[in-house]
Amino acid sequence: MTDDRKEQGLVIDRAEQALYKTYNRFPVVFDRGEGVFLYDLEGNEYLDFGAGIAVMALGYSDPEYNLEVQEQLGKLMHISNLFYNQPAADAGERLLKASRMEKVFFTNSGTEAIEGALKIAKRYAYNRDGRGGHEIIAMRHSFHGRSLGALSVTGNDHYQEPFAPLLPGVKFAEFNNLDSVKALVNNNTCAVLMETIQGEGGIYPASEEFLKGVRALCDDHDMLLILDEIQCGMGRSGFWFAWQEYGVRPDVMTVAKALGNGVPVGAFLACGKAAHAMKPGDHGTTYGGNPFVCRAADTVLRLFEERHILDHVNLVGAYLWEKLEEFAGRHDCVTVHRGKGLIQGLEFDRPVGDIVKRALLEEKLVLISAGANVIRFVPPLVITQDHVDLMLEKLEASL
Ligand SMILES: *Cc1c(COP(=O)(O)O)cnc(C)c1O
Predict the structure, then answer these.
(1) Quick one: which of 134, 248, 327, 360 could link to 215 by a disulfide (CB 3.0–4.6 Å)?
(2) In this predicted structure, what is the pLDDT of residue 1?
(3) Residues of the chain under the 50 pLDDT cut
């Protein structure tokens, strides 16, 4: 055994001893990243089509991004929300410009963005009715995070059951089935929450009819439409936010993952009647929106604009689509191909765990699954057609 391999094994042993075991991790220790490649402690190079779960949109070690966050690190990291800071104003303005929303609140994670969005919905309905007791409609097979509020609206019994009782007043409809949503609406309903493209659930885009129908339903019943763009937002669909393709606008939306390109930052945004529902004192965070994370978010948003990332996603996304269509045509075990831009999924007629593992350990290709039977492709948004070709060679060899 080489020394490097021994060292890698040692790190794994120490991590298993120290870290609370809520994950079954793959036996690889990543040490550094460069562009769309990762390197383990043994020096092996991996092509990354997972991007740290749709986070590393600009890839690893982008020089311009690194320079900005390093400069901020040397200047000011944190001061609390009792004071103002310039990066928060900068990042906030850019995010509003990209989304055409009106107000933004920065959080530390996706799940916290969901918590804030749920609080807006409850507060809005409380202001309207002068009482509590409101209900939220969420979708089956959704994923919104692991904190208790977000878990309450995550339509997955397996995740929920051990932690019950959860938030009361949550009902689950079937994604892309407007009648199933209508059937759950009553005088107490304050919001409908869904991902514009379901991510963890297996890469299911909302149909246009469904999203427009839910928007109209929310308008008719004075309910808020909350769209979770944590995974499908930030350019991944080929639009800044996936809902922009549909010609609807949510009242509240959540963002995280790619927003900080690795620095933990999320946000919830609101507009129209939702923009002023919460008042000073209703919500807060110690870290959220500090100058360090906001400088990172501001830089990500600026680099997206300067480098025309959306155009790039549309080009490479179309190429990936074509190549995965060909792949699906060659292999009977692939049953469906879904997605948009650089959030695509291949559904297999069997669990994909073995393929994902072989891809990683033998072909040095980082892939992630979405549910048991779907391989999801959420690479850094800066991948090129050559990377797509290389990925397909490695995927082929992993079958
Ligand atoms: C990842 C994810 C979340 C949770 O984000 P965390 O940062 O892990 O808390 C919520 N919603 C969607 C759609 C996600 O993909």
Answers:
(1) 248
(2) 63
(3) none
Is 256 close to ligand 1, i.e. is its CB under 6 Å away? Answer: yes
Is the CB of 303 inside a 6 Å radius of any atom of ligand 1? no
C-beta 142 within 6 A of ligand 1: no
Question: Between vectors from CA 219 to CA 256 and to CA 222, what angle results, nearest 5°?
Answer: 90
88-122: per-residue pLDDT in tens? 999 999 999 999 999 999 999 999 999 999 999 99
Tokens linked to 321: 């689509």
- Ligand 1: which of 56, 175, 196, 230 to mutate, judged by most atoms within 8 Å of the beta carbon? 230
Determine the pLDDT at residue 3: 84
Any ligand 1 atom below 6 A from CB of 115: no
Q: How far apart are CA 232 and CA 259, in angstroms?
A: 11
SS3 for the chain is CCHHHHHHHHHHHHHHHHCCCCCCCCCCCEEEEEECEEEECCCCEEEECCHHHHCCCCCECCHHHHHHHHHHHCCCCCCCCCCCCHHHHHHHHHHHHHHCCCEEEEECCHHHHHHHHHHHHHHHHHHHHCCCCCEEEEEECCCCCCCHHHHHCCECHHHHHHHCCCCCCEEEECCCCHHHHHCCCCCCEEEEEEECEECCCCCEECCHHHHHHHHHHHHHCCCEEEEECCCCCCCCCCCCCHHHHCCCCCCEEEECHHHHCCCCCEEEEECHHHCCCCCCCCCCCCCCCCHHHHHHHHHHHHHHHHCCHHHHHHHHHHHHHHHHHHHHHHCCCEEEEEEECCEEEEEECCCCHHHHHHHHHCCCEECEECCCCEEEECCCCCCCHHHHHHHHHHHHHHC
Predicted pLDDT at 230: 98
Residue nearest to atom 15 of ligand 1 (CA): 231
In short, whether 199's Cβ falls inside 6 Å of ligand 1 is yes
**155-180-174-250 Cα dihedral, nearest 10 degrees:** -80
Sign of dihedral through CA atoms 85, 103, 313, 37? positive
